[in-house]
Design brief:
29% of the residues are buried. The chain folds into two domains: 1-47; 67-238. The chain is elongated, with a radius of gyration of 31 Å. 58% of the residues lie in helices and 12% in strands. The protein is built from ten helices and six strands; from the N terminus they run ααβαβββαααααββαα. Helix 4 crosses helix 8 (188-202) and helix 5 (147-157) crosses helix 6. By secondary structure, it is an alpha+beta fold. This is Gamma interferon inducible lysosomal thiol reductase. It comes from Onchocerca flexuosa. Belongs to the GILT family. InterPro entries: Interferon-induced_GILT (IPR004911).
Length: 247
């Protein structure tokens, strides 16, 4: 209101001295522009004040601890398929938003790999197709670092009949050439990555004797096979809202 009275006073002053019309119009336009500028500043200040409490509230939220989840799997194991489809994938989709789950997947299981002429020869528990699928998973994990991208694809591959069916149904979900991934899975690189996963699996203490083998913060959790979300929530402090949903 004060600004409006000032503008009116200026206009009356101009008319009092009988300024010509072509002088008055530019002055009035300039006054109008100045008034709009002041109004926009006031509006921006008001908007920033409205947003500031939300920023403060976000900063005050406790981050909490991060839980390390490691899952040792093999591609055609029925128990692994049951766990991946019913526990790992839905739990990850629900709890990954907390940014407090550090996930590692190691596809090898009870396979065996032997050095052979600058390459590797591998044998898997459920036969050669499983080795190829394990290699496919390892190639994806090598090329894709974001679990939000690779977890659904690993779940899709898990339990597939062979490399061909997995390639047709699962690889289109990735932003990497399917030919490149399959070339890795079918070749020396895939066998090398599978052997590397085998070295890590063979160094587990206690040794792996069941697949899937699940570690939470470095300790084997057999209960997580039946209820992964509950076991992760028990390890999180403070408990996130995603855990409270199941209580």
């Amino acid at each position: 209101e004060k600004k409006s009275s000032i503008i009116k006073a200026i206009v009356r002053y101009l008319f009092r001295f009988k300024c010509r019309y072509f002088y008055i119009v530019p002055v009035v336009v300039l006054i109008f522009i100045f008034y709009q500028w002041l109004f926009s500043l006031r509006l921006e200040k008001s908007f920033s004040m409205e947003r500031s409490p939300a920023k403060l509230q976000t900063a005050e939220v406790a981050v909490g601890n991060v839980v390390n989840l490691a899952v040792y799997i093999e591609a055609q194991c029925p128990d692994t398929s049951r766990f991946v489809h019913r526990q790992l994938l839905p739990t990850w989709q629900n709890m990954s938003v907390t940014n407090r789950i550090s996930l590692k997947i190691v596809p090898f299981g009870k396979a065996k790999c032997f050095p052979f002429d600058n390459d590797y020869s591998c044998e898997c528990q459920h036969g050669p197709p499983e080795c190829e699928l394990n290699q496919l998973m390892n190639c994806i994990l090598e090329m894709v670092s974001d679990p939000h991208q690779y977890v659904p694809v690993i779940s899709c591959i898990q339990g597939k009949r062979d490399l061909h069916s997995a390639g047709l149904k699962c690889l289109s979900k990735l932003h990497i050439s399917a030919k490149r991934i399959l070339r890795c899975a079918e070749g020396e690189e895939g066998r090398r990555l599978l052997a590397k996963a085998g070295i890590e699996t063979l160094h587990l203490q206690p040794p792996l004797n069941f697949v899937p083998w699940i570690l939470i913060n470095g300790k084997r959790s057999s209960d997580a096979f039946y209820d992964l979300k509950k076991n992760l929530c028990d390890a999180l402090d403070p408990v996130p809202d995603e855990c409270k949903e199941q209580q």
